Amino acid sequence: MELRDYFRILRQRGWIILLVMVLTAVAALGFSKLQTPIYKARVRLSVMPARADFGLKEATKDLLTNFVLNIKTHRMANRVIERAQLDMSSYDLLEKIEVKAEPSSFSIEIAAKDPDPSVAIQIAQTMAEIFESDREEWNQRQDKRDRIDVHIVDDARDAPLFRPKLLMNTVAGAILGALIGLLIVYLLEWLEADILRTPQVVERTINVPVLGSIPASTEHATRSTHKSQRSAP
Question: How many CB atoms lie within 10 A of CB 161?
Answer without folding.
Answer: 12
